[in-house]
């Protein structure tokens, strides 16, 4: 009767007599990842891409090929012409203020601590993904609530040494202009807020205090 050249034949006992020599299982083989591309668009939160190609196609029901393209979040603060993006267009990247204590201790130990400042914002819109962050390092995102005022601190090393500000702090924005922010650790947690004022120190409760990255 007929014989077969696949992995299933070893269970159904109908392999061809030369199966071991003529029908070996050959898995897919892919190349190493390429270098990451630049951001898809400057001055906004987009993505970058890296790719790989197939070196050997799978045969005889060998393991299928994995994904050949991978994307990651990306932000660039300079245009292709080399000019700095307008501050109002740069989304603020934030994390919980709980990291601020460790950051200040480290900066003090290095002798590099610079005087920072704090910016108060009123949260306008928040993506639903902020409320569904299940990892321990993303629990702080649940304290983001529409309509609440929050304090975001700009401190070393996020404080740019030349401009003396943090990217995304809304410097130069118009009154009541909607500005964008994104949480570090969950790229789907993002939204908009309005800048209220800049202060030398933060006065918000700890659960409503955050850091510029």
From TrEMBL:
Domain SMB: 1-28
Short name of any one Pfam family annotated for the protein: SBSPON_C
InterPro entries given in the database record: SBSPO, SBSPON_C, Somatomedin_B_dom, TSP1_rpt, TSP1_rpt_sf, TSP1_spondin_dom
Domain of life of the native organism: Eukaryota
Disulfide bond is among the record's keywords: yes
SUPFAM superfamilies in alphabetical order: TSP-1 type 1 repeat (SSF82895)
Keywords: Disulfide bond, Glycoprotein, Signal
Protein known as: SBSPO protein
Gene for this chain: Sbspon_1
